[in-house]
């Protein structure tokens, strides 16, 4: 959620201000992240939601300085408990990654080395930031596995990644991210490939960890059904921009931006069995060059409520309790 400037309150665990990340494309510059701002307090889970190509994952990589050339961050700030980190040198960023802000990827095998035992890898992660003995590092790894609900954690330290189930590997990845009790964890679709029962267990564990440890989570997903039961607040992204934000309960119960309305309407559980799900007009988020054409609402070519005024910059309409939508014709008003 957005902080109140100048209040003197404790700064958010993680804050992003006006972040812009660009990539060269065939037709010109692609604004993958276009002025994104949000903040997450300690112990809070913020869901960053949108379809493929909306800029969610690039936002996560940009926060950690992991955008590879030719992509580049062109504007904005990333603050960790009030301290800017996106202007740091490569070596300074490496000291922060894992220790103060960590990332959990969709595929845990991106994190885990298939030829090394779990304990060896986790102990190496501990010793990369802390000068402790090998035995102390293994003990901390065992403790982290227990925290995420892995049974017989000492035995699991001796396992190789291929000897664990997908859900168990993802728990190991989360445990690795927690080794240094970071201020914030960025989770990029970490449960997408798991079956529903395992997914539910991990979501419950993450909610418990956020409450118990005070770690802030940025939970990146395309699945509203997941974040509706997990997140405290939501930011909905379309074409690199946050088009709606607010408390998760408010955004799910009364979505205001037509894109969010479509996302909520696409969840099968909200409809009678056998009923046709509502569909948007065919199309993809625009990814062309920047310019005057981008000044208006980028959703207007697919929006059922669009009018000529939507070619102009949309205002941020407020609906109370921090719930806002970037739209000329939000749901619940006359188009």
TrEMBL record:
**Keywords, A to Z?**
ATP-binding, Cell membrane, Membrane, Nucleotide-binding, Transport
Q: What is its main location?
A: membrane
Instruction: Enumerate the PROSITE patterns for this protein.
Output: ABC_TRANSPORTER_1 (PS00211), ABC_TRANSPORTER_2 (PS50893)
List the record's Gene Ontology CC terms alphabetically.
plasma membrane
Please indicate if the UniProt record lists Nucleotide-binding as a keyword: yes
* Stretches assigned to the ABC transporter domain: 14-264
Signal sequence span is none
CDD domains assigned to the protein according to its UniProt record, in alphabetical order: ABC_NikE_OppD_transporters
Q: How does it sit in the membrane?
A: Peripheral membrane protein
Pfam families listed in its UniProt record: ABC_tran, oligo_HPY
Cited SMART domains: AAA (SM00382)
Entry GO MF terms: ATP binding; ATP hydrolysis activity
Q: Where in the cell is it found?
A: Cell inner membrane
Which Gene Ontology biological process is one annotated for this entry? peptide transport
Q: Which NCBIfam families match?
A: oligo_HPY
- Annotated family: Belongs to the ABC transporter superfamily.
What name appears for this protein in its UniProt entry? Methionine ABC transporter ATP-binding protein
């Amino acid at each position: 959620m957005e902080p109140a400037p100048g209040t003197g309150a404790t700064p958010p665990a993680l804050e992003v201000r006006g972040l812009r990340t660009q990539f060269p494309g065939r037709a010109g510059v692609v604004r993958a992240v276009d002025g994104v701002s949000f903040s997450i307090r300690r112990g809070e889970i913020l869901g960053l939601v949108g379809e493929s190509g909306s800029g969610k994952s690039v936002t996560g990589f940009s926060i950690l300085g992991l955008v590879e050339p030719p992509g580049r961050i062109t504007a904005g700030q990333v603050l960790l408990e009030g301290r800017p980190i996106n202007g740091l040198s490569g070596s300074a960023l490496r000291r922060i990654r894992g220790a103060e802000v960590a990332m959990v990827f969709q595929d845990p095998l991106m994190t885990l080395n298939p030829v090394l035992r779990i304990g060896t890898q986790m102990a190496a992660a501990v010793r990369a930031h802390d000068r402790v003995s090998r035995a102390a590092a293994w003990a901390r790894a065992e403790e982290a596995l227990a925290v995420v609900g892995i049974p017989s954690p000492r035995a699991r330290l001796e396992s190789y990644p291929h000897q664990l189930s997908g859900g168990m590997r993802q728990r190991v990845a989360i445990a690795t991210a927690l080794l240094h009790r970071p201020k914030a964890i960025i989770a990029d679709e970490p449960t997408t490939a798991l079956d529903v029962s395992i997914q539910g267990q991990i979501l419950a564990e993450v909610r418990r960890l956020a409450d118990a440890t005070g770690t802030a989570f940025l939970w990146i997903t395309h699945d509203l059904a997941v974040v509706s039961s997990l997140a405290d607040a939501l930011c909905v992204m379309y074409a690199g921009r946050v088009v709606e934000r607010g408390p998760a309960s408010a955004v799910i119960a009364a979505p205001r931006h037509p894109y969010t309305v479509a996302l909520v309407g696409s969840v099968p559980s909200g409809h009678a069995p056998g009923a046709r799900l509502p569909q948007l007009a065919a199309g993809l988020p625009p990814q062309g060059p920047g310019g005057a054409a981008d000044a208006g609402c980028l959703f207007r070519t697919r929006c059922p409520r669009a009018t000529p005024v939507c070619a102009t910059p949309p205002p941020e309409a407020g609906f109370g309790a921090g719930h806002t939508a970037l739209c000329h014709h939000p749901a619940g008003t006359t188009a």
